Amino acid sequence: MTARVLVVEDAEPIRTAVGIALTEAGYDVRTQPDGDGFERELATYRPDLVLLDVMLPGRDGFELLALARETSNAGVILLTARDAVGDRLHGLRTGADDYVVKPFVLAELIARVEAVLRRMGRLRTVLTVGDLEVDVEAQAVRRAGTAIELTATEFKLLAFLAGRDGKVVGKTQLLTAVWGYDDYADNLVEVYVSGLRRKLEAHGPRLLHTVRGSGYVLRA
User: Fold this and answer.
1) What pTM, to 2 d.p., does this model score?
2) What's the Cα-to-Cα distance from 118 to each of 23, 76, 105, 186, 220, rounded to whole Å?
3) Which CATH architecture has domain 126-218?
4) Residue 133 pairs with which residues in a beta bridge?
5) What is Dmax (Cα atoms) for the chain?
6) Which one of 14, 34, 207, 213 has the lowest number of neighbouring Cβ atoms within 10 Å?
7) What is the pLDDT along the chain (220 residues), one digit of tens a residue?
8) CATH architecture, range 4-120
């Protein structure tokens, strides 16, 4: 099941950008601008993880963090422009799972989300597609029992595709999820897909398919 992430941020540009990036990284995402929306979603959407801005209008993020801890088992990552050590310690001591200071790089934020969800056991750690096995924690790949050596970027690309459960993924989505940006040349993705495909096909039939005009899919 796809992990559910709730973004609570009053600044619309940040809320939109984070929501899009998380969606493109493969998460089920909802966004809200304030504490009232947060409370509704906590009860009805039941997120696995909340990205919670500290400086919200009305009830601030620390107050909402306390509410989350009382009423749900969702993970919480605090987002704030306040970089004081005291603020960070207060957030962590009152139950936050992580604390990210603005401005942040979207790729780093997505990595933090993944790390918290994995610690909570909300993400699969071993992904399988046909005879291919991708161990996310060990960063190991085997096909039909044979180990396949990949670069760090190739592994990240493969793990993302394997985690999409046979869904087609576009180039822009891959750029955001794997490289952390979406305005680079398309041939960057093509080069890495081509290299990854060669390594996989050295041990069996094609698994990594191109869907013309749409993107790529990992499918047995």
Assistant:
1) 0.73
2) 17, 13, 20, 30, 26
3) Orthogonal Bundle (1.10)
4) 128, 142
5) 58
6) 213
7) 589 999 999 999 999 999 998 988 889 999 999 999 999 999 999 999 999 999 999 999 999 999 999 999 999 999 988 776 777 788 788 889 999 998 888 888 988 998 999 899 888 788 999 999 999 888 999 999 999 999 999 999 999 999 888 989 888 888 888 887 656 666 899 999 999 999 999 999 999 999 999 999 999 9
8) 3-Layer(aba) Sandwich (3.40)
